[in-house]
Amino acid sequence: MSARAKNLTGWAVLLAAVLVCALGGWSYAAARGDDSLAYAKSRDAALAAGRSQLARLNSMDGTDAARIEAGLDGWLRVTSGPLHDQLKSTRAKDASAFESARTSAKGTVTDAALTALDERGGTAELIATVDVKVTPRTGAAGTERKRFEAALERTGDGWKVKALTAIPVGAAT
Description:
CATH architecture: Roll
Largest sheet: 4 strands, antiparallel
Number of helices: 5
Shape: elongated
Order of helices and strands: HHHHHEEEE
Strand content: 25-35%
Number of strands: 4
Oligomer: single chain
Helix content: 40-55%
């Protein structure tokens, strides 16, 4: 191969490398500013928060008054709007019921999905199944499977549950 052919081959390889780098940079810049990427991040954040908050709202350590109060505080931290107001107004009654029962519950979200997300309005709807392991003061522990529909809203502190509805087994959603 002549020196001139080697020189042309070198320039062709360099040009191809520059084009590949430019295409990669353009593709990255386009994806970074893509609205669907921002929407996906918002969706993932709402779903993760909803899962965590449903687990919290289905959990309570009923072994003593201090833990019950801490559990009720946790419920208030993950709620907003009408649900928050309802939990606040029934707090004393709820604390009394848990203190008498001394029953503990641990909720685990087994599956969840957003059915709606209004990113601009800061609202989302979630459906989920939750396994709740209930441990009574006396007797054997058992697990209950529950289904919920939750309305979420984005607040200054992140996503919170503003409404929660139990869905009976066998009900159409």
